[in-house]
Write a structure and sequence with these properties.
about 90 residues, mainly alpha, two-stranded antiparallel ribbon, 2 helices
Length: about 90
């Protein structure tokens, strides 16, 4: 669960980090200069962040799982050998 939350937070901050890198590489004024972070620009970055998170959820989701009405057989020892859990 924590890994999922951290990935989503990282995805959220990607547009802000890219904009900060852009400011570092193109301007001599400070990255934290208030003129560079107008309300309209911050709102655009927030919208881009939400879009990045939504796209990330779809691409990073792990599809799969057991088919409906399947039976889970837990891991067990059979004839002295370990048999991992499985669904049938």
């Amino acid at each position: 669960m924590a890994r999922t939350v951290l990935i989503e937070l990282l995805l959220f901050f990607i547009p802000f980090a890219l904009y900060g890198l852009f400011l570092l590489s193109t301007q001599r004024s400070g990255v934290l200069d208030r003129a560079n972070w107008s309300l309209a620009r911050v709102l655009a970055l927030v919208a881009a962040s939400f879009l990045t998170v939504i796209v990330g959820v779809f691409f990073l989701a792990e599809p799969g799982g057991s088919p409906p009405r399947s039976t889970y057989i837990p891991a067990h020892i059979e004839d002295g050998k370990f048999v991992p859990g499985q669904t049938k």
